[in-house]
Amino acid sequence: MPRLREAILSTSDATRDQALVVNIAKRGRDVLDDPSVADDAVMGNWSPYRGRSAGTMDFDPDRIAVVIGYFRGQMVAIFEVTPDDNGHTWNWCPDHRIRFNGVPSQRFAAQVGSDAPVNWRQGEAWPVKTIPLDDLIKGDALVSETASGRRTVLGDVVITATADGGVTVTIPPGSTLTVRATA
After folding, report:
1. Nearest CA-CA partner of 134 in 63, 32, 61
2. Per-domain residue ranges for the chain?
3. Torsion angle, CA of 147/48/42/144, rounded to 10 degrees?
4. I need a labelling partner for 172 at 20 to 30 A (CA). Which of 43, 114, 136, 154 fits?
């Protein structure tokens, strides 16, 4: 089992197997300009229901381990969902919405600023999508096509290759990257 996956699974509740990606289009620029507002923009007041329904759940908040702030194709903030003083990982807000409790993720910090694992098409109004947590912590080189190019996650490293031959490698703080050119 890859190091990062093992660490996450050993510290996460086994039922928390999803990441919630939230489109913060209206506040994304604020988060980029001042990361201290990310908690307010990313963690709060999301409807767990599909459309205007108050009975059909779109996602189960008890399964969410990570909340990802999405803005213009990139992950601009990632939070680990953690319990508050009362043991709750989320709380009800007015209008049948919920707010998650959490802290900025150190596990996924290297992925902030990289291409998001999902995208919104123009006109797509629903602001939340769920993905398996494994999509963020895979040790296998699953390659996905994104607006910026081809993207893969190897443990806690994100690699993006662009159509013009450019490569971006995002690594966690304190890591070392060695590049060797082939002949």
Report:
1. 63
2. 3-135
3. -20
4. 43
Please report, as a single letter, which amino acid is at residue 76. Answer: V
Q: Measured between alpha carbons, how far is 119 from 106 in angstroms, rounded to an integer?
A: 23
Token output for 46: 């999301």
- Look at residues 139, 175, 111 and name the one whose alpha carbon lies nearest to residue 5: 139
Average pLDDT of span 107-129: 86
Instruction: Please provide residue 20's backbone torsions phi and psi, each rounded to the nearest 5 degrees.
Output: -105, 120
Give the separation between CA 147 and CA 39, rounded to whole angstroms. Answer: 26
What pLDDT sits at residue 104? 94
Which residues, in sequence order, are CB contacts of 60 under 8 Å at separation 6+? 18, 48
What tokens does 106 get?
């150190």
Give the separation between CA 116 and CA 104, rounded to whole angstroms: 17
Tokens of 39: 């908690």
Model pTM score = 0.71
